[in-house]
Design a protein that fits this description.
Blueprint: E1 15-18, E2 35-39, E3 58-62, E4 65-69, E5 74-82, E6 85-93, H1 100-114, E7 118-122, E8 125-129, E9 134-139, H2 140-143, E10 153-161, E11 164-167, E12 174-179, E13 182-187, E14 190-199, E15 202-205, E16 209-212, H3 224-229, E17 232-239, E18 242-246, E19 252-256
Antiparallel strand pairs: 1-6, 2-3, 2-9, 3-4, 4-5, 5-6, 7-8, 8-9, 10-11, 10-12, 10-19, 12-13, 13-14, 14-15, 14-16, 15-17, 17-18, 18-19
Length: 259
């Protein structure tokens, strides 16, 4: 896989996704709101979407937005229902250097959504269908229970600004662990620790003690956005192995528990 680039591109596109849901008026797709779905293998004999080995499609619906991932870039756009359609617009995407087959998979997923798949939700099972392809998905909580906030090692996946996800610079990394009322962690350039109080869906960070460590040329200072968000009260949202910390200004950090 190619190295991630130290930049991301926000691309605005409009996609109209046809569906077969039960909603009859414009608005947020209520049956899907607040849920995340992971692709599962097609049933025998079914013409399912071909996926690169070891990857899955991930679709998340939350607060009028949808995020689509297929192993490379992340797409995020506004989503509403209009009759039997899901209408996705104002989509931002990260631009990450990936292998040719993963880039191709992102393109195929985008075309699949743009072809207007019909959708059917049966409990935890979501089926998207076009004339040529079917994509079966299941609610993430059925196959991937939410990880605990405390005691887990969370690795930084992206920094989100105004709904657009920016990839972590090439060669950079960050993690944190919240446990016993404290947070410890590091970026490629800084170690940090300090008090962290958890209450419901909020974690409140106290003043952090930081220590600079040697890091690769060009990375010094990249982690300021990370450290700036770990101050005061931030909102916590966990879905499966994903953690999103959102500050008062709307900036967010997405973390993941990696195998």
């Amino acid at each position: 896989m190619a190295t991630r680039r130290n930049l991301f591109l926000s691309v605005v596109i409009t996609m109209t996704i046809a569906g077969c849901g039960s909603a009859s008026t414009a608005g947020e797709p209520e049956p899907l709101a607040g849920r995340t779905f992971l692709s599962v293998p097609p049933v025998p004999g079914e013409d399912g979407m071909r996926l690169v080995e070891g990857t899955r499609v991930r679709l998340s619906f939350d607060r009028g937005a949808v995020v689509a991932e297929a192993g490379c870039n992340s797409l995020r756009g506004e989503v509403t229902t209009d009759g039997d359609q899901l209408v996705v617009s104002d989509v931002g995407t990260t631009l990450i250097g990936c292998s040719a087959e993963l880039n191709d998979q992102d393109s195929r997923l985008t075309r699949f959504l743009q072809d207007g798949p019909r959708w059917r939700l049966d409990g935890d099972n979501l089926l998207l269908t076009t004339h040529e392809t079917r994509l079966r998905l299941v609610d993430v909580r059925s196959v991937e229970p939410d990880r605990p906030l405390t005691g887990s090692r969370w690795s930084l996946e992206s920094v989100m600004e105004n709904g657009t996800a920016g990839s972590v610079p090439a060669g950079a990394a960050a993690y944190l662990i919240i446990e016993a009322g404290r947070v410890t962690g590091a970026t490629s350039c800084t170690r940090f620790e300090g008090p962290a109080s958890v209450s419901g869906s909020t974690v409140t960070f106290g003043a952090l003690t930081t220590e600079k460590v040697p890091c690769a040329a060009g990375l010094d200072g990249w982690d300021r956005a990370v450290l700036d968000l770990l101050r005061g009260a931030v909102t916590v949202r966990i879905t499966g192995d994903r953690l999103v910390l959102t500050g008062a200004g709307g900036r967010a950090l997405e973390w993941r528990v990696k195998p």
